[in-house]
Amino acid sequence: MKSLLYEHKTKFILYVIACFMPVVSQLMQIGVIALIFETVERQSMEFFRLVIFIAAGFLIFNAGTFIFSRMLRISYMKDVLLSLRIRAFDKIIAMEYKQFNQQSRDVYISHLINDINTFENSFFLSLINFIFRCGLYICVLVILFFLNWIIGVVVFAVSIFVLLFSLLFQKKTVQLQKDVSDQNEAFTVDVANTLNGLEILKLNNIEQTFLKKNEEQILKLEGKKKKFNVFTSLQIYTNVTIGYLLFMGLLIYLMYQTREGLGYGELVLTIQLSSSAIFPLVNMMPLINVLKSSKAIYEKITVPEETVITNHAPNTFKFNDEIVLNEVAFSYDDRQLLKPTNLTLKKGQKYLMKGPSGSGKSTFIKLVSQIIDDYEGQITVDGIDLKTISGQSFSQHVSYIYQDVFLFEATLKDNIALFKDVDDQKVIEACHQAGLKEFLDALPLGIHTPISENGKNLSGGERQRISIARALLKKADILFVDEATSALNDELGRRIEQTLLDLNVTLIAISHKTFEGITSSYDWVLEIKDGFVVPYKASVYFNGVTT
Known about the structure:
- The protein is built from 17 helices and ten strands.
- The strands form two sheets. The chain has a six-stranded mixed β-sheet with strand order 6-7-8-3-9-10, sandwiched between helices. Strands 2-1-4-5 form a four-stranded antiparallel β-sheet, with helices on one face.
- By secondary structure, it is an alpha/beta fold.
- The protein folds into two domains: 301 residues, ABC transporter transmembrane region fold (Up-down Bundle), CATH 1.20.1560.10; 220 residues, 3-Layer(aba) Sandwich (Rossmann fold).
- Helix 16 links the parallel strand 7 and strand 8.
- It is found in: Cell membrane.
- Its main location: membrane.
């Protein structure tokens, strides 16, 4: 986490200075109050005027430093949180697709929102208080050694004891903070699932069942938060009790010292300094534990796990001839979805996968597209084992079109170019090839027209064509399509299907729909029967001959 804090070194130094400014104000306040009591003892009007002048100067200085300190701290916090969000997002983006799919999308959303908010609320509040209390403790301890070395030694000895005592709480604090983070994930996933299926719940009158389930998740989450807050408060109250006992002992000692000639001003100054050393100290140690727990959250959302690394396979993806499956089989939970298959997929040809739901069509695509790699047998691309091809290189040459196309709340160009710096004309050409010419011509701002959240202002056909335009602009060698037309009416489905077949790519598509005069234009139909992939010439398959 040091790299995050030191990323903006100048601002970090200014942040530390800003956190230290209240220490100066606190010491000045202690001095002013001591001078006021000294005035009572001296009973000098001239000295009283001097104290009034000093007090007025202190008030002006205190107001100015407060504003300046806050501005410096806010500026640094903003930069650090931005860097944290970027690092958390970079960890997600760097994942292999297979690894990304091991968790729900809502878990990643929880990392980007809940965990970062937790980090912001706990870390920065604890950091500023830690720097302030640490700075105040050191300054006051030095002054106490000059005023009364006995009190200085006692306060320092107690501080060592409190430090060792607080270390007993550290491991538990970190674990409780992690529990809050994990429960936040579970709650986010549960709520997302409920909202996504709300229509079905209402139509079947079972929303109360899920409402109760969500309430249970809320109670669990609040319970985890309560445990963390209570445990942290327990540390603070325990240390405060130690501080009060020490302070009372020092107070009795100082009252005794007045018999030895200790003046009012020095008495009040010593009491305030002792108080400022003891109570910031007892609160400072639990803050260390909270900072440790914040570090654990930082590592959880930004540090890649050992398995979450970019594919370092040595070969680059080059597809000039054929993809060959040699005795490829795949099982899931002791169930063999795909039995030993021998198949050759030629570059530039169009393949349509058929078969009942659950037969393994999507699994077949995942095998060929590197998403699943724990299969038996071998898949080669122009003689190169697919498992030895870099995932990053592979993804640069393939595209995917699904039934549900995700669109960003950005311009049409950004949604097609995926925020890359691409020439406008190339984007327009991709739109035309994808069948978006009429749609584009009707837009006043053309490709720079804003798209609403997830394309709510677009039809299903327009969304699918934007997805096709992405693939065209990317100049993908292989296009994987999974039920792209299933949610469209027949007219839109026919147009999308024809557009896909006209593309100069190798097409591997899954579809349950058949469009007369169009679907038969595929080169091959790959039908999965009882786990076996059986290839047919499409012209033969759609003429009713399938054996």
